[in-house]
Amino acid sequence: MSEVKTKAELAGSAAVILNQLTTEQKNEALLIVAEALIAGASAIIEANQEDLERGRKNGTPESLLDRLALDNGRIAGIAEGLRQIVHLPDPVGETLETLERPNGLHIIKKRVPLGVIGIIYEARPNVTVDAVGLCLKTGNSVVLRGGSAALSSNRKIVELIHLALSGTSIPPEAVQLIEDADRSSVDEMLKLNGYLDVVIPRGGSSLIQNVVQNATVPVIETGAGICHTYLDATADPQMSKEISLNAKVQRPSVCNSMETLLVHESFASVYLSELAEAFKEAKVELRGCPLTLQLVPWAKAATEQDYATEYNDYILNVKVVPHLDDALAHIAKFGTKHSECIVTDNDENAVRFLNEVDAAAVYHNASTRFTDGFEFGFGAEIGISTQKLHARGPMGLPALTSSKYIIHGSGQIRQ
Amino acid sequence: MSEVKTKAELAGSAAVILNQLTTEQKNEALLIVAEALIAGASAIIEANQEDLERGRKNGTPESLLDRLALDNGRIAGIAEGLRQIVHLPDPVGETLETLERPNGLHIIKKRVPLGVIGIIYEARPNVTVDAVGLCLKTGNSVVLRGGSAALSSNRKIVELIHLALSGTSIPPEAVQLIEDADRSSVDEMLKLNGYLDVVIPRGGSSLIQNVVQNATVPVIETGAGICHTYLDATADPQMSKEISLNAKVQRPSVCNSMETLLVHESFASVYLSELAEAFKEAKVELRGCPLTLQLVPWAKAATEQDYATEYNDYILNVKVVPHLDDALAHIAKFGTKHSECIVTDNDENAVRFLNEVDAAAVYHNASTRFTDGFEFGFGAEIGISTQKLHARGPMGLPALTSSKYIIHGSGQIRQ
């Protein structure tokens, strides 16, 4: 049997045990894992050095090496993340619904673990620990397939986790790391119906698209974000500036940052040139529609392709629109159903925008950067879902659960 | 553009309008559709005759022709089904969660339609109306791809629906029927990411497996049922007989009927031969394990393949097990996570069974035949989900919805 299938099967057997554990047992185990990671920090850093050296030899860009690098501070942060997961409420076992039927059947819908979760990700070893924490807390086994660039680090981390779990109620087999760096191990995971209950991709859009296009196992898509901010005719100018700058530059590399600013023409005629200066100061390159170029002559011209691009960078499209309807149509055409914002003092327009825009998160007078598990108060998140099935938006612990109907009878049969 | 893409795009535009309708508007439209079907009954029956004649010419088996056939009574039943959907509560707009954040953000999680739902099904024209009713009630557009054997009937039904909707708030484009009988139209639907939000297969296991194996659009799997009933050592003999007979013979062709009876050896030694006689009287063929064959010499021998087969017929596997653990292991190996039952007077064993068996519905002392939207009190159902994501078990109206976070701010930006 292949490595993937063997390990997924072990994870499946462990899931049966994990499913029966109490919250206390799971929390206790996670705290022991957190301690083990701290205690093993120097071993992790040593393994991480191997990855970094290999990366440098292969000419990996500095920004990627930075995401890969671990030091004592980062390991402490990772362990602290685990401790925070311990403090989150355990959704497993929650009664979601109770139905009393006329024939005396007593039906309880209960939250249960999903079973075995596959996580496919890139070169950030912190995802390894995050995913383990979130999956174990919710009673799921996890099959990890991280990027080969982080393999030494992930191997050492999982070795420490296995060692730590062996003294707890959680079977170490609940955590499986696929070490086969070949792309075929990903392909195999994507088709492992009956072994994996769900696959969650975490990474860039090509990784996500590969998973979505090839998986027969159910997927939770944590997708791209082409997010818009629309400044309406009655938008407060100061608030507009603060929100749009924040949405663009506070952290341009993430999915909830803004890629296109839509501006009502009456607002634009008074305020756009000043606003453009603020973006210029923040080192943002502007790409504008023809009307924008009239008001901001130094901006570049935006193409259709620009509107369809998630820059994740200091680049912003600006489009002047004659009416809210045009903003809605633009978002419907180019948005990725992630996060969209309207800044306005007109309540009627706000309500229309919030109702009609089809996205995981729609904002009135606040930055799209808030679409985040921590900011919503969920604690750690496994990602932000851009699909509509199962979970949408920031996914906290309940997104890693399913449900089950438990029916108590006294001999009922169907007529 | 292909028929599938053109129609899916029309459905998508209609979904934007549908999304904004009130419950009253939707209900009113559904009642008008119900009337139109009754008024158009003779036209439907005429079209249905074409399908039936073609079917007879092609040598379609009588049982399939029966599922395809429509008469005044069946059409009245279909219209009545629509009226029942009108009376169900509308889940859209429901507030699922409210979060007040320390920074003053006010976050509301609301239930919204999924958008555009693709339904792929076989030759039962009643599914056409059912699906239309359930999808429209929940504010979704629907793209129907029924079996070619029912094409004339479906065409006429959808023509009547379009005509009826044209006088209502629901745009007729919200209902689309794919008329291309070629298998390639199904393949195209399965890859229509960005146009279809979900595909739901309704039909036999080969149809479902084709959808699961080939879809890149999210799928809700309404799967096969290899359901077990386990008679524990302390099971009440009369209740055991009633429940197991009901689970097998009340309607053997459906997914929640029993395929394998597991019997504790101490119960078997006293009661199995009598129970076997009852099945014999009900014309059920028994296939037994070696211990069963000792007690019921006239039974056939069961093979591993038998345990893995969904008969949907008057055939039953019987296996004697020495312990609850063996029953659990058998179910874990051969079950399809649909519906499983334990009959016992031992509460400890009942709790273990209900907790440890991984299935959409687990029963203590009641027939598995109850896994059904009507029996659970949900009213009409779009199917029974055997996957763990999004919806599990009988799917009522809420399974056809997603959610959306609506965030009200006053200028908040992220620090």
Question: What is the gist of this entry?
Answer:
With 415 residues, the first copy, chain A, is of the alpha/beta class. The first copy, chain A, has 15 helices and 16 strands. β13 (361-366) of chain A pairs parallel with β16 of chain B.
Give the CA-CA distance, first to last residue of chain A. 47 Å
Q: Indicate the CATH class of the largest domain in chain A.
A: Alpha Beta
Q: Count of DSSP helices of chain A? A: 15
Query: How large is the share of residues in beta strands of chain A?
Result: 15-25%
Question: How many separate domains make up the residues of chain A?
Answer: 2
**In CATH terms, what is the fold-level topology of the largest domain in chain A?**
Aldehyde Dehydrogenase, Chain A, domain 1
Describe this structure in words.
2 copies of one chain form a homodimer. The two termini of chain A are 47 Å apart. Chain A folds into 2 domains: 3-222 and 395-408, Aldehyde Dehydrogenase, Chain A, domain 1 (3-Layer(aba) Sandwich); 227-370, Aldehyde Dehydrogenase, Chain A, domain 2 (3-Layer(aba) Sandwich), CATH 3.40.309.10. The first copy, chain A, has a 7-stranded parallel β-sheet, with helices on both faces. The radius of gyration of chain A is 24 Å and the shape is globular. Chain A contains 15 helices and 16 strands. By secondary structure, chain A is of the alpha/beta class. Chain A is 43% helix and 20% strand. β16 of chain A pairs parallel with β13 (361-366) of chain B.
